[in-house]
Task: structure prediction
Amino acid sequence: MTRTSDNSVTRARLAGLIERDDQWATLQTLLTDSLSGSGRVALLTGPVASGKTELLHAFGEASGVSFVKATCSAFEKDLPFGVVSQIFHPLDVPAEVGELLDAAARSADGPSARQLHALCIALLDLTAETPLVIGVDDVQHADPPSLHWLLYLIRRLGQAKVLLMLSETASPRAAHTPLHTELLRHPHCRDVPLAPLGAVDELFESPRHAADAMRLTGGNPLLIRSLLDDQRLCKPRDDGGLVIGPGYRRALVSCLHRCDDHVLPVARALAVTGENATRESLSRLARVDAEAVASALDVMNEAGLLGDGWFRDPAARTAVLDDLSTQDRKEMYLGAALLLHDEGAPATEVAPYLVMADHSENPWMVPVFEEAAEHALRDEQIDTALRYLELAHRACVEVHGRAAIAAKLVRVEWRVNPSAAGRRLGTVVPAMRAGQLSDRDVTSLVQPMLWNCHVDEATEALERIRRSSGSGLRAVELWLACSHPTLARRPLAEPVKARTVSLTSGPMLKAVAALANVLTYGPNDESATDAEHVLQAARPSDSASWGPESAMLALQALVYADRLDVAAHWCDRLLEEARAKNLVVARAFFSCVRAEVSLRRGDLGSAFEHAQTALDVMPAGGWGVALGMPLGILINAATKRGRHEEAAALLEQPVPEAMFQSRYGLHYLYARGHHYLATSRHYAALADFLSCGELMTSWGVDRPGLVPWRTSAAEAWLLHGANRDEAKRLINEQLARLGPDASRTRGVALRLLAATNQPHNRPQLLRDAVAVLEEYGDQYELARALADLSKAHQALREHRRAWTVARRAWHVANVCDAAELCEELLPSRGKADAEDAPAEEKPVDPIATLTDAERRVAALAAVGYTNREIASKLYITPSTIEQHLTRVYRKLNVKYRKDLPADLHSYLPSTA
Result:
């Protein structure tokens, strides 16, 4: 291919981004023909921004002959002879030609044939000796008089040394214009099509960028150039991908504005409605006919602005939406919502458009928002549901409907922000008193009312639902008896037996029935099974009105029944899901129960951490009357770790008075009593423990699994030294209520009972206490029992035994972070001192903290036996093996079998 100037060729390459070799060759041939006295017309066609303008200008400047150019614009269509004036202006024409041009432009009826002929002859006379290249860009926008003149000129180019280059954006509508009709008849006219670029590998630094550029642009040269600018001007992406910057977005919008008038409205309608929009919906929203929609989609697809009828990247859609003013965007979203509603689209499709339109003025929108909120709740999108309900409440004008929506807002917001839900009660309570709420709505308000200390209002609500005897009353009464007993119709004298709760009962009823049975009858398999059934189906953002509390109640039933391993498993599982979905209330609830599990296991550091997380995730104001639970755990854990100043500071935090009339207050009173006990305020401690007893007895929930107040009160009497007989009575009463079954509380009671016996009787009682506490895995109480056993041996002058047990007690206390107890066991010596002690005085290694049964199981596991094989060798069940290994891992601070120490091999039973 021959070109006139290398510099011009370089400019053409830079302007068009790549060589247009075929098109350039065609134009060169046409130029050669025109120079020989045979005028030619070149029609450069292609999608918007396909490089037509660049090619037209580059070739005209590189042609080596006189070049004049004119640019057409849709804004100048009403300017008569505007294009012709641009062509004649740079030419040296006689003055009378200029006067003729002015006269033609001023003609009210448009230029006459005589004027057109005269102007055409004037141009042809100029080219008799001097060839001319004329470029008219975007000829589809030429004003009508200029277009008439161009047609007149084309018909007379046969003997002229003129190359007329016309550029036009391809459009189905352009094919039927007079210009196209004339060009089809003209024998010397050539169509020069410009397709999108097929490859851009040479323009980008990597094949990945080139591939991404083609995907984003469809080969549109203007968009390609804008992406190149973005790579140069914008900060690189961390993953090394192609940067989609402001240049790309501006170029895409520019392309749309350069298209025919009907294209931009269709593009905006498409951006608003989404990729599943139909041509009919686009037609209605863009307010153009169906033919115009089809044409616009074809134009945008051919230009690379769309791919298969949809924007090639979210950035493209965002750019189109950002090009709209705020008001126009809202109006289009509202139009889309109305369109979808008229077509019978589901509420989940209509509501988002109404939200984006920020419009909730019409009554028909109320059921749309309510239905969409229900779907959002089922999908655990609580914030979205709240937004829909807010708009429904704003749109609703009917009194009862508005009150029902307000009640639902309270229920839903309670799951994400209980204190905010409490603030809404001020608008709902008057509606309740005015009889504008259904029984179901009133029932759903009882929990948030009591949670936020609105006791009087809750009492009114209870009177209303008791009069109606609604279907939810059974669960409410049971829940009150378990959590707010002073408001219950009667104490838990006749709880629901597990067998009377059918498989079809709701999760709340099953959970509260399980808890009620544990609090009334103590641990039992039926209640634990029911609790696990609830947890198996639990979702942290359960759409029932009780939210995640049904799962929390089921977990507490397991905790109070001493099923700590099971409770820990479910807590961890639910916590993981709550964290993944950022469910604040659920995460706070499950962290609190997990803290209680750790506290009862004697894992004081973990208990403190989980309780602190519960209060960090949901601050004290959100906990309402339930604040006693996480706060009580923090106080108790700090006390047992010997951090008494920290516990005292926690006790200074204000708590709601209503808390002390709920189950949650028992945890707080119990923790405060132990702080008083640890700081030698025995009477204050005794008062708190006895208060727990009075409340629990009057409420019908006097079970040690909830709060073992008798053993704690007995300990207060013993430490005070004033009434050992009363202490012994309380201990024996506690043991009698426990029965023969082992439990953590039984281990504690046996330890305290030893203190009331003669020295020679104490070791056996304490050994029994140690065995029970080892089985139930309470490390803190185990350390205390071992410490007392050491003292008992010391009192009997069994010094070697005393020191051996003391060393083990120190190690157990050290593992559970009971620093004060460690100091009691090894006075004036820290951990480092203990490690540096003589060999016979060093605390034993972690294996020494294991029971004999645990050592046998751990030894077999360490050499590779499976749980089933170990069970067969030791004649116990696989589930017992699993429980032993759980405690072994915790005591040895390992996670997997492969991490078990090799020293365990020496404990292999002979059967191995």
